[in-house]
Amino acid sequence: MKARRKGVGPSCLRWGVFVALFAVIDVIGYLPGAVAHRRARGRRIARGYYVAYNVMHSLVTAGVLAGVWVLLAGSEWALLALPIHLLGGRALFGNSFKPFGVAFEPETHPAYRTFEEQHREMRGTKEEGAHAVRA
User: Fold this and answer.
1) How many Cβ atoms from other residues are within 10 Å of residue 85's Cβ?
2) Are 11 and 18 in contact (CB under 8 A)?
3) Residue 132 resides in a domain
4) Which is nearest to 85 in space by CA: 93, 73, 52, 69?
5) Is 133 within the bounds of a domain?
């Protein structure tokens, strides 16, 4: 077994471990629900998929996973994959916990869909007023 490099920077990061820790959240918490949602074709899916997503996307679960990792393998920079995944998803994409009352995957709101259709029609027939800002 290779000795772990000590220090700071990308040369000290075990990229395979980083990728695995980054991916495990979605492999367990998201992919099963996404597959079930697509197979359901508009029908509701089991609440267990929502629970799996919410548990795996919890900072508490990430903390427990990191703690177990530190106890078994030691502390390392690759553990930053966990907060990067969770906080990055919230900050960049607006992802948060999935409530039971909504579809597992995002859906366009009917009112917005109507707005888009009306906007397309307006743009197609009356080009002059369609631009909010002209350069």
Assistant:
1) 19
2) no
3) no
4) 93
5) no
CA distances from 69 to 49, 62, 74 (A): 25, 10, 7
33-79 confidence digits (pLDDT tens): 999 999 999 899 999 999 999 999 999 999 999 999 999 999 999 99
Give me the domain span that covers residue 43: 13-106
User: What's the DSSP call for residue 104?
Assistant: S
Computed over its alpha carbons, how large is the radius of gyration of the chain?
22
Q: Which of 1-10, 111-120, 125-134 has the highest mean pLDDT?
A: 111-120
Distances from the Cα of 13 to the Cαs of 26, 45, 77, in angstroms? 21, 39, 6
How far is residue 32 CA from its own chain's centroid?
13
Domain count, the chain: 1
Which amino acid appears at position 12 of this protein?
A: C
**What pTM did the predictor assign?**
0.74
Q: What is d(CA 15, CA 28) in angstroms, rounded to the nearest whole number?
A: 20
Residue with tokens 């869909």: 113
